[in-house]
Amino acid sequence: MTAEAIRVLLAEDEHLIRGALAALLALQEDLHVVAQAATGAETLAMARAARPDVAVLDLQLPDMDGVTVARMLHEGLPECRTMIVTSHGRPGHLKRALSSGVRGFLSKTVTADVLAEAVRTIHGGGRYVDPRLAAEAISAGDSPLTPREADVLELAAEGMPVEEVARRASLSPGTVRNYLHSAAGKLGAANRHEAVRIARRYGWI
Known about the structure:
The chain is an alpha/beta fold. The chain has helices spanning 15-26, 40-50, 66-76, 91-99, 112-123, 131-140, 147-156, 162-169, 173-187, 192-201; strands at 6-11, 31-37, 54-58, 81-86, 104-107, 128-129. The chain has two domains: 6-139, Response regulator (Rossmann fold); 147-201, Orthogonal Bundle (Arc Repressor Mutant, subunit A). It has a six-stranded parallel beta sheet with strand order 2-1-3-4-5-6, sandwiched between helices. Strand 5 (104-107), helix 5 (112-123) and strand 6 (128-129) form a beta-alpha-beta unit.
C-alpha cells in the first residue's frame, strides 16, 4: 500500500463475493479496502467511521438498493465517490444511478484490473460505465411510465389483488386499474403481468 492509497469501502451482502473483491483489490498497491459491509445501514455507519474515498456498492443490498445508499452517502459524505457493481444491470438501473450522482456502473463479470481501473478513474473525478450497459440504456430510451404508474406496477408485480394494491398505494381500486391499463398500453403489453416483465427487463421498476 502506498502513502497515497485510495481508501475503498465494499458493500456486498454475499460474503464470498465480498471477500473475493477485497482480496483482488488488495493486490493493487494504490488501493486499500478500509471497510466492508453487508447492508445499506452498515455501509452508511462504516462510511462515517472510515471516511472512504470510493464506495463500491452492490445494486441490491438486503435493506435498500445501492442507488439509495449512494444518494445518502452523497448527502452525508460528499467527498466520497460511489460506483455500483451488479449482476442484474438494466438500462433503467443505470440511468437512475447516474442521475443520483453515481460515478461508475459495472457488471460483476468484469476483471479485477477493470474494477481497479474504474476505482482509480472515479477517484480522479471521472466516470466509468460498462460499455454494453451504456449502449443498452441509449437504445432503450427513457421509461415511458410516470412515477405513479411505475409505483402501482411494482406493487402489482408482487401478485397482490387490485384492492390490496389500492390500499398500499392509498388509491381507489378504479384508479389503480386505470394506472395498470395505462402502463400496459405504454409498454405494448397485453396485460399487467406482461407489463411487469417488460418493465423489469429494462429496469424501469
